[in-house]
Amino acid sequence: MTQQNSSLDNRPKTYIGSSILFFMIFFTATIEATILFSLFWTPFEVRYKFGRQWCRLMLWIMEITVGLKYEVEGLENVNPEQATIIFSNHQSAWETLALRYILPMQSAVIKKELLYLPLWGWSLLLLKSIVIDKKNARGALKSLIADGTKYLNEGIWVLIFPEGTRAGAREVLPFSIGGAMLAHKSGFPVIPVVHNAGDFWTRYSFFKYPGTIKVKIGAPIETKGRKAADINAEAEAWITAELAKL
User: The whole model's pTM is what?
Assistant: First the structure.
């Protein structure tokens, strides 16, 4: 762990009250929302709009209770009419909510274990999530390419966290090849996204701190005719360099 990461983790826990308040509201709202969301007979577009507005509500509640805001740079790089693969760094639970609201309708890659969570897991499945089994690397890659290509062809974006797990604040872990293989096979462009959410909501931590999370959206990366390793290297280099600037 870097010295900077250590100092973030060792901050005084002076925000326990606001963190508890947010958790209580989040937990209650999540139960209510997932029960309503489980009305699976509604069209996918309706379910997705409902989920997106719920994410918006949670971001607003986080701002009110914790004082945690966000700002986005690079929205001019987003073309809602062009299905795209999103490569984002992964530091906390914040980006799993925020990117649903900030970016166009999307399918997220999730691990199979999340489906075991009552109500929440079912809701993720109803959002056309791409479910992978991390214990079966070959099967996971096959599912990612098949389902990802299908959704992209339907005009649905695909959200991938190439690190595969949450990294420490200001850290970028090596990218796995799955997302780049999807880009290579499908030919759809990749948009890299970087944020510093880990500065305010560190991985696996209950505590959240006030401030402004910065999100930067990069220009699309062309993937047609390119090797997966080259696509991965370009996206990883951009995210690493831009994270250092945030």
Answer: 0.88
